[in-house]
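Long-time lurker. I teach an intro course on protein structure, and each term I like to show students one example going from raw sequence to a predicted 3D structure in token notation. This year I'd like something fresh instead of my usual example. Would anyone be willing to generate the tokens for the chain below so I can use it in lecture? Attribution to the forum is fine with me.
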Amino acid sequence: MSDPNGKVAIVTGASGGIGGAVAARLAADGFDVVATYAGHSTVADAVIAQAKKIGRRGLAVKVDVACAEDVEQLFSATLDTLGRVDVVVNSAGIMPMGLIAELDVDVFDKVIATNLRGTFLVFSQAAKLLGNGGRIIAFSSSVLAKSFPTYGAYIASKAGVEGLVPVLANELRGRNITVNAVAPGPVGTELFLKGKTPEQIATLGKLAPLERLGTPDDVARVVSFLAGPDGEWVNAQILRANGGFA
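-- Reply from a regular --
Happy to contribute to a lecture. Here you go:
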């Protein structure tokens, strides 16, 4: 990709810590940004307001990535309002915890619907609508390498995401579109911290050789690389941005 000015990036899950940081970083990089949210729009609205302050166009859209109609409407609204789609980042996700023997199957189904079905639906629309030089970026997790108890549903969903990435990259052969995923280690977001004791958080922060939790900006920089000109030769990869966690 050349100068991103005039190019458009969709970032799902921009109401969360990582998604919001990614959307803000891509706007700072020169992209017009569409930021989605599932519940409250506060963070996504703030990202778009900041993008407009620096001369970028932007749009906040409520989207349930597990709903095919919502995802189709997201892409349609982006094309209608901003005229094109060049980069798609699917960071929307949920992470309820529970032992496999005890987790309600409805909760499991919701995790799969949001994290895996949502990725599939976003991938499908992106594959249909992105043009030459497009970038598709999903989110997995470095926790796959650890197999921690209570992470079963989450790990199952993210393992599926990692399986989709190289398949879509191969399906897009000849179109100059890259497909990758970022797999962060522990990042100090509300999603990650929820339900954990201070002791658990401190322990997890020490697992990586860098001995700290990641920040949303750490992850946003990796997405910026994949979406920018320096990432054009990286394809069908899972980038484990985790400080050496796994």
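Some talking points for your students: The mean pLDDT is 95. The CA atoms of residues 30 and 55 lie 9 Å apart.
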